[in-house]
Design goal:
By secondary structure, the chain is mainly α. It contains 8 helices and 4 strands, in the order H-E-E-E-H-H-E-H-H-H-H-H. The strands form 2 sheets. The protein has a two-stranded antiparallel sheet with strand order 1-2. The longest helix is centred in the first third of the chain and has 34 residues. The radius of gyration is 24 Å and the shape is elongated. 34% of the residues are buried.
Length: 235
């Protein structure tokens, strides 16, 4: 790695460790550069450190969570229609329908992606020599904890449901229905309809890489450094 790239990454890591109460991302908060590494006077003559709130990254994280919940709602509609049909045809009892609905809810909530959009909103960690601030945790919430986790979550819903219903005495007499219901859940899981976009993440990452003067190699190095930094902040 070039000395310049190493220097930038070291400054980012040291700044974040020093600001141990911070773990958010700022896309464009226009922090005064002269206040980044020193105490600055406010209007009352007191010395305070300047921080910025990354509303853009926070909104992006919240939008990602909403998309996941919309996907859950779509699952719920399918499940409710299926169970209502089975009840109408008297294939299952209301109690058995309740058990199936409960097991489904447990299965879909297991490993459901959810970004932490409130922690570490404030930061004064800057990108290179710009006036744009960022902090590692909120910076990665939408991309790492929502977007990247949706496929694995969807793929695992069927397995969770099978585990939860396997050997359940309340469902012993309707195994064909359980199998059919499982197949219906599995079929819906193949369609990822969540429209999660992490544009602020991509733009901020591009700014960081550009400020470090690197390309794909720098992007990989930064990703590894960010992961290490977040780990350091939370141990």
């Amino acid at each position: 790695m070039a000395p310049k790239q190493t220097s930038v990454l070291m400054r980012l890591a040291l700044s974040a460790i020093f600001l141990s109460t911070i773990s958010a991302v700022i896309a464009s908060c226009n922090c005064p550069l002269q206040c980044m590494d020193q105490w600055c006077q406010n209007g009352n003559g007191n010395y305070v450190r300047v921080y910025c709130a990354d509303i853009q990254a926070q909104n992006e994280c919240e939008d990602g969570n909403k998309e996941v919940l919309k996907l859950v709602s779509s699952f719920d509609q399918n499940v409710n229609l299926y169970l209502e049909g089975q009840l109408l045809n008297k294939v299952i009892t209301p109690f058995q329908a309740s058990v199936l609905r409960t097991r489904y809810s447990q299965a879909i909530e297991a490993d459901r992606p959810e970004g932490d959009c409130t922690a570490s909103l404030m930061t004064n960690l800057v990108i290179g020599h710009t006036t744009n601030c960022y902090s590692p945790k909120l910076f990665t919430e939408c991309h790492d904890n929502i977007l990247l986790k949706i496929p694995g979550w969807l793929a695992g819903i069927k397995g969770h449901f099978v585990t939860l219903t396997n050997g359940d005495a309340n469902l012993a007499s309707i195994q064909p229905v359980v199998s059919d219901f499982t197949a219906a859940i599995d079929q819906r899981s193949t369609a990822n309809t969540a429209r999660v976009q992490c544009q602020a993440y991509n733009l901020t990452l591009d700014e960081i890489i550009h400020a470090s003067g690197g390309g794909e190699a720098s992007k990989t190095s930064f990703a590894l450094s960010t992961a290490l930094l977040i780990f350091t902040l939370f141990i």
